[in-house]
Amino acid sequence: MTKLEIERTPSAYFYPLLIKNLLRPPLIYSPHQEIIYRNRMRYDYLTFEKRVARLANSLKKLDVRKGDTVAVMDWDSHRFLECFFAIPMTGAVLHTINVRFSPEEIIYTINHAEDDVIIVNADFLPKLEAVKNQFTTVKKIILINETGALPETSLKMDGEYEDLLAESQIEYDFPDFNENTIATIFYTAGTTGWPKGVYFSHRQIVLHTYGLMSGLCAYKSQVSLDSGDVYMPLTPMFRIHSWGLPYLCTLLGTKQVYPGHAEPETILKLIEKEGVTFSHCVSTVMHMLMQCPVVKDMDLSRLKIMIAGSSLPKDLCKEAMDLGINLFSSYGMSETCPLLTVANLKPHMLDWDLDKQVEIRSCAGLPVPLVQLEVIDWEGMPVPHDGKSTGEIVARTPWLTQGYIKDPEGSEMLWKNGWLHTGDIGNIDPEGYLQVTDRLKDIIKTGGEWISVLKLEEIIIRHEAVMDAAVVGVPDKKWGERPLVLLVLKDEYKGKVEEKDFKDFYKKFADAGILPRYGIPDRVVIVDHIAKSRVGKIDKKIIREQFD
């Protein structure tokens, strides 16, 4: 043994960071806590453990081996949670298929990931049937059938999910293996080119789970998640493991509620019925919930909601908090598993008035432990943390994807100079809070000056008539680019406001020095809807094609 290394005793056990070890604590601390799927399934963690083992045995009978890829197409459900654990715990790879992708994108990801088995909800059979003749690696298909009646399909099925589990043993000896074994893959929902595959190891998912715990459970702040909470995801489970929260909430042994495919009113009723206290979603989903009439009659004072995936508008944050909802922002991306920051209030901020708190709650937040963030200039040098100096946000942390699947060139660009490049523009203030101000690809350059797209969107969403907004840069012969603003109006304001009203609204912010005068848009277009991607983000590629 030297001073620099610890010599490993031959008989010592090397404890690998494997997903199976996240399942041990709830079986000790809260074995009888509930996991619920809508009004259709309700069982405890002891049953969950048995069902995970049954699924593993079912896959073994179908000759799924270590290193094989098992894809899942399902609504947010207890079954999806079982797949989160059983598939990687056997040494296989879980591929969460984005069911909002087009048929062309779905078959691309199936073949690119080299899926061996697909577990598919009957609702998504038409998507598979449309591409079945293009399968290159798929050998088996498992059906999830909730209706009882067998659906008509030309696909060959190798069993029904519940039938397979019922026929399988309730015990499975999940093996130890290298913690750097790939556990999951999924594909980013880009608006240009084919989706890119990102992958994460058991080690990365375990460390990310503890990163979530340190960011959401450890600090004295307005954010508080513990084993007494009732958790329900509003982020699809195919989307970055539903931000990793199902792994954390299983580790904590919380009561978990899975809503399946549900409309805003159904979601709100489920929140009320099951006593949900913690959830997460993108701001557009939050906006839809806030517009639902039943929300005004509900007691939401125990509900905490984390926003990510897009910026949290300050007005939406204040509106939610006026209803008693503890709303706050966070930041990350597909390539970061996703958590990097959480908008935790520091202890001295907890007594601030609501308006002042909103400024912190709606920013990207503070890096959670083990996350190292920097903002760099165009030469790759860090800029001061003064809340003003901006540049590209780069990151290091143990749970970042090491690259894109089968894309070495894209992987090198992602990891230039040993930092993961987010493609986001932002600044860090003296307190350590990150503020994301733009995407590199979305900044508008007009007459040699930069205009912040996010700033223009943030301003116009404050107008009382606006329900949804998007800003893009469009070509201009004189200035190179100029901002174009698209607005969806609230029903009660349709026909009562016009383009000039919104330009005047922008002018007030320019007069106050908040917006440069060259940032006042030349065009404001009122539309019925704004093009969105499969995960609810504004699809600016389509908008530019429509209005260029």
Relevant terms:
alpha/beta, Rossmann fold, single chain, 548 residues, GMP Synthetase, Chain A, domain 3, globular, 28% helix
What does this protein structure show overall?
This protein is an alpha/beta fold and 548 residues long. The chain has helices at 24-29, 45-61, 78-89, 103-113, 125-129, 161-166, 202-217, 245-252, 264-274, 283-291, 314-322, 354-361, 408-414, 453-460, 499-511, 540-547, and strands spanning 34-37, 41-44, 69-73, 93-96, 117-121, 140-144, 182-187, 197-201, 230-231, 255-258, 278-281, 304-307, 326-332, 339-342, 366-367, 372-376, 391-396, 420-428, 434-439, 444-446, 449-451, 466-476, 480-489, 523-526. The protein has three domains: 19-201, 3-Layer(aba) Sandwich (Rossmann fold), CATH 3.40.50.12780; 202-370, Rossmann fold, CATH 3.40.50; 446-547, ANL, C-terminal domain (GMP Synthetase, Chain A, domain 3, 2-Layer Sandwich). The protein has 16 helices and 24 strands. A six-stranded mixed β-sheet has the order 6-5-3-4-7-8. Strands 11-12-13-14-15 form a five-stranded mixed β-sheet, with helices on both faces. Helix 10 (283-291) links the parallel strand 11 and strand 12. Helix 2 (45-61) packs across helix 3 (78-89), helix 7 (202-217) packs across helix 8 (245-252) and helix 11 (314-322) crosses helix 12. The chain is globular and about 70 Å long.
